[in-house]
Mannitol dehydrogenase family protein
Amino acid sequence: MTAATVALPPNRLSRDALPTLQAHLLSPQWREPRIGIVHLGIGNFHRAHQALYTEEAMLAAGGDWGICGVTLQGNVGKRNALMEQQGLYSLVERGPDGAKVTVIRALREVLAMPADAAAIFARLADPLVRIVSLTVTEKGYCRDAKTGEVDLDDPAIAHDLAAPLAPRTVPGILVAALRARRDAANGQPFTVLSCDNLAHNGAALRQVVCSFARRLDAALADWIAAEVAFPSTMVDRIVPATTDAECVSAAEQLGYRDAVPVPCEPFRQWVIEDRFPQGRPAWDAVGAQLVGDVMPFELAKLRMLNGTHSTLAYLSMLGGFDTIDAAIAEPALRNLIHAMMTDEIAPTLSLPASFDIAGYRDALLARYANPALKHRCAQIAMDGSQKLPPRLLATIAARIDAGRPYRRLALAVAAWMTFLRGHADDGTRYEINDPLADKLKALAASAQRDTVALMNALLGVREVFDAKLAAHAAFRTTLDDALRLLQQQGARGAIAAWQ
Ligand code: CS2
């Protein structure tokens, strides 16, 4: 069923339609807020998570926290689709008991780089904008994996250093905007709020931004370091990509066409370091947790959820499971994930005594089993070169330091390496979507069927594997055993054998 084959309602979702959509609104009361937040990376995750919390916060406690969303990929199609609906879209929460459709109003404006650069920087210069938040994924930080500083080898960074007033990258845009704020009459910065899956995401972004600024103007870098808050957060909600079927379903539920509905699970969580010198929405009034230290929550989520998500994704791409719920329904694979979380990941976490890690694990397994979401493994398998270090390799390093086993984690790394050959066990080919795709595919191809050559080639990719881990003899031995098992028995055989 696609939007092209089903008769959709003639009218598009619009603010004029809202009086007829009361059943799909968080509240009938609503004052159109002025824009107080610019969000970089207006993808499905932001629209299912921060935008929802922010609308709820404004309903609970008021405030001008309307959102200006910015797409950085030059995606004017996404901008046009949302602006044709005056920023409105439907959020479709899909659980085992059915779907709940909510029309979200917090998004007031959508702009696209570079087409709307002038409007974007005018918005960033507006003193009413007190928060710039981001969901740009790991690769959007332009970060040198070894140093944590800005990646000077990135051509886009080189462009922005050469043309700092016409930036295209996140560091370049943030530094140009903060420079303008420093030089303006009131000299007030905005708070920079990372909402990406990185450990210490606020501090990581601060290091990238300050190192970029320092290449241009040491005084500006010092001002940013001293005056700009970069709180860390942990964000959690499983949000698949939008499909045609989702558009049809949203239209049937609303009676209006929505070109950009967002599917998501019912679960959501947001843990935020409470450091907002310029103020913030009342997120704590609507379920977000404002804390002093996000780290314990960040690591639990990165390692327990994202680490097993990536494990499921790569074993599934090889073994032929299309979605996460189909993969976790495979008993041997579910057992492997359960044991990985229990025996290899959870022991690396330093959690408050009140944190029920077994309950967290069981809740994750139930979320993965949600049959209504159809979260595609191929979506999660993207960008592995950026995702593996924080999700799996840091956990392996912690296990090595503790002198504890990590064979299931090693199988996940071996599955990623095997995945880079570009075909499933049955020969089905798939695309490798990754910032390093060309390099990784060439290395995998050069190794042909030689698993030792494959391991040596990929362990040499310093953007992914640091030299210490790559040289660790026991890790190499375990990895090679897993690679050979995957090659000899396929993913399904390896899962059964590697319990
Ligand atoms: C997923 C995440 O696509 C992926 O890499 O692991 O987007 C995951 O769904 C979210 O982090 C869940 O909060």
About this structure: The longest strand covers residues 89-95.
